[in-house]
Amino acid sequence: MEFEKRIGNFSFGGGSVKTAGKGSLDKAEDAPKVRTKHDAKAIAKSLGNAAIALTALRIKSRRKKK
Q: For residue 17, is pLDDT > 70?
């Protein structure tokens, strides 16, 4: 955060630097870089469900046109 505004008991901040800490910008530390690993099984299941849903919609729309 490169910007911090304090109003009473509240503080608002913004910016592009990732920080982590308690309370205010002066106590903040650089946020750790966390590697996210995508679950291939969950992605495949989601794509399969989407394909089934699209197929069902196409069949349904073809039946309505007839």
A: no
